[in-house]
């Protein structure tokens, strides 16, 4: 804990030998000394006369937060000219004749011509006000700021350089934020760009070059350059094919076409890139990002320091493989080729993958053994997750059987005609199934998920991005290799991609132009995080699996314990395992109730009592903390209800719309339960564990969806398809169908073509 102005704040361990820039975004959180360069477009208003106060306050708040973490923050700021222009314009208007102003009328006063103001005079008038504003804002966070004005000469004179360096170090030592600006009141006009020839030479002719020079002089870890664009694009932003460059490497300048400079300020993007590369060469990491966007400017600086994918990151280390954006584009292209194959060819790929799972069993289990040993040695996984991570011969055999089911059922999945309509004579309309596009499946501790999801994507003609947990890295690697081997028999290897880069899940969820659907497979926390992080991309799945079994007063003694045991004990970590057992009140203190309790004790299931159940007991088990709990282990809650109606109400209030079961011999009661429980899967006298794509005959599933749009319950091939409309005409135009036109709408339903019986 450090203290400043009697206010304690936490510090983070930050230390690193300067001399080499960070290789990856994830390392930026270790940056201790940071320069934030605020471009003119960030600091000034849209009319270029005055400051964007709200934006500036947000930036100060972020800088203060990082300063209070123990980092050494410096700001290179523009804005003095704009602030001075505002003040001088105001003075000019006030100095004009009051008589003239009144005579001109208010409307003409607004349009009164203002003389062109010289920039150096504006800077002289604005510097003190700009600094006073910064001081007032930083004071709110108990942070002191200090102003330093420099010119190019201060860096060329050795004594002045040493003085500047010493001043900055002393300010940082005292936990003061230096605010640096070119002294625009005396600076000479900018000269043509004739420098940037080496690490020791760069002229300070704008704040981009100043920030770069300062970053290298002060051995800064990170330089953040904020402008009015998202980062560096491969062509001018706004052009049709412009793409944001996530990571820029020295030597990539040839692949970039620069546009004009920003609306204000001295330099454009080309000047920023040259300054950034110069700083990178000097050992400082650089990120260029948007500091004006209202949705991100409030956290853009902290997001960059946290390693999130914001703006363009400059790195000297090129990754061995493609970027995730390139992988997504490869998956889309591969998916389109896959969808164009004959159904028999897609099925052949899946059959080949099924064979490889059994043929390469030893290699798969060896890789899985490495994952298990590493997880156990590190102690990073709880027992239920270790069980999910584990593969076995029987699991691989079951996987192969499921994949063959998918292959057999996929013959007419893509391109199947769902509806045919004769709109008019010789004008026929068809609705046909097509792939969704590119799927992103994020899964943890479940390597068996990879071949299942891959087979479903192949059968439905979708491109696929897979992001597995690092705890299953070895298993995922070999399973993906086998998947690509199977895809290669028809030249569509790129359709399924495994993301091995350091991409954060949150960053993947922002790729809304490349990904069409996200499917999370893992803990409820993972699903919630992805649903929160997804930006414009639909998420299919369920956040929790709070499954209920209701034992009715008319339940069969023979069925109750078997169904409850299977639902809770067969695989307690599964999302379709029993979590809450509802007992009809009439069954309390009966032999059947005793049998249920005895069975749960024998199976070592820890029981939590619901409030109502606890009220019936003298000595009850621990009372449940929440009736909305997914235990994922040998634990469950028992609660008492008075009727099937109360059971339904309880499920609606505390359930997750996943899977719910009634055990009863009363058909009328069962039908009431089946019709009224609003869950994806509702069963009568059957285990909750049947809620599974393989057990439903779907071959496998990408997950179980509790949403109400598109797909619900176990999602197989059908849930990965959408539709498009095909209209075949012969010189038809809408005007022919007007009141006095020559044609009439028929809208006749036509028979569907025969489906493949195989």
Automatic annotation (TrEMBL):
<dbReference type="InterPro" id="IPR005715">
    <property type="entry name" value="Glu_5kinase/COase_Synthase"/>
</dbReference>
<dbReference type="GO" id="GO:0004350">
    <property type="term" value="F:glutamate-5-semialdehyde dehydrogenase activity"/>
</dbReference>
<feature type="domain" description="Aspartate/glutamate/uridylate kinase">
    <location>
        <begin position="32"/>
        <end position="290"/>
    </location>
</feature>
<dbReference type="InterPro" id="IPR015590">
    <property type="entry name" value="Aldehyde_DH_dom"/>
</dbReference>
<dbReference type="InterPro" id="IPR016162">
    <property type="entry name" value="Ald_DH_N"/>
</dbReference>
<dbReference type="GO" id="GO:0055129">
    <property type="term" value="P:L-proline biosynthetic process"/>
</dbReference>
<dbReference type="InterPro" id="IPR005766">
    <property type="entry name" value="P5_carboxy_syn"/>
</dbReference>
<comment type="similarity">
    <text>In the C-terminal section; belongs to the gamma-glutamyl phosphate reductase family.</text>
</comment>
<dbReference type="InterPro" id="IPR020593">
    <property type="entry name" value="G-glutamylP_reductase_CS"/>
</dbReference>
<keyword id="KW-0808">Transferase</keyword>
<keyword id="KW-0547">Nucleotide-binding</keyword>
<keyword id="KW-0560">Oxidoreductase</keyword>
<dbReference type="GO" id="GO:0005759">
    <property type="term" value="C:mitochondrial matrix"/>
</dbReference>
<comment type="function">
    <text>Bifunctional enzyme that converts glutamate to glutamate 5-semialdehyde, an intermediate in the biosynthesis of proline, ornithine and arginine.</text>
</comment>
<dbReference type="GO" id="GO:0004349">
    <property type="term" value="F:glutamate 5-kinase activity"/>
</dbReference>
<dbReference type="Pfam" id="PF00696">
    <property type="entry name" value="AA_kinase"/>
</dbReference>
<dbReference type="InterPro" id="IPR036393">
    <property type="entry name" value="AceGlu_kinase-like_sf"/>
</dbReference>
<dbReference type="InterPro" id="IPR016161">
    <property type="entry name" value="Ald_DH/histidinol_DH"/>
</dbReference>
<keyword id="KW-0067">ATP-binding</keyword>
<feature type="domain" description="Aldehyde dehydrogenase">
    <location>
        <begin position="323"/>
        <end position="588"/>
    </location>
</feature>
<dbReference type="InterPro" id="IPR000965">
    <property type="entry name" value="GPR_dom"/>
</dbReference>
<comment type="pathway">
    <text>Amino-acid biosynthesis; L-proline biosynthesis; L-glutamate 5-semialdehyde from L-glutamate: step 1/2.</text>
</comment>
<keyword id="KW-0641">Proline biosynthesis</keyword>
<dbReference type="InterPro" id="IPR016163">
    <property type="entry name" value="Ald_DH_C"/>
</dbReference>
<dbReference type="Pfam" id="PF00171">
    <property type="entry name" value="Aldedh"/>
</dbReference>
<keyword id="KW-0418">Kinase</keyword>
<comment type="similarity">
    <text>In the N-terminal section; belongs to the glutamate 5-kinase family.</text>
</comment>
<dbReference type="GO" id="GO:0005524">
    <property type="term" value="F:ATP binding"/>
</dbReference>
<dbReference type="InterPro" id="IPR041744">
    <property type="entry name" value="G5K_ProBA"/>
</dbReference>
<keyword id="KW-0496">Mitochondrion</keyword>
<keyword id="KW-0521">NADP</keyword>
<keyword id="KW-0511">Multifunctional enzyme</keyword>
<dbReference type="InterPro" id="IPR019797">
    <property type="entry name" value="Glutamate_5-kinase_CS"/>
</dbReference>
<comment type="subunit">
    <text>Can form homodimers/multimers.</text>
</comment>
<keyword id="KW-0028">Amino-acid biosynthesis</keyword>
<protein>
    <recommendedName>
        <fullName>Delta-1-pyrroline-5-carboxylate synthase</fullName>
        <ecNumber>1.2.1.41</ecNumber>
        <ecNumber>2.7.2.11</ecNumber>
    </recommendedName>
</protein>
<comment type="pathway">
    <text>Amino-acid biosynthesis; L-proline biosynthesis; L-glutamate 5-semialdehyde from L-glutamate: step 2/2.</text>
</comment>
<dbReference type="InterPro" id="IPR001057">
    <property type="entry name" value="Glu/AcGlu_kinase"/>
</dbReference>
<dbReference type="InterPro" id="IPR001048">
    <property type="entry name" value="Asp/Glu/Uridylate_kinase"/>
</dbReference>
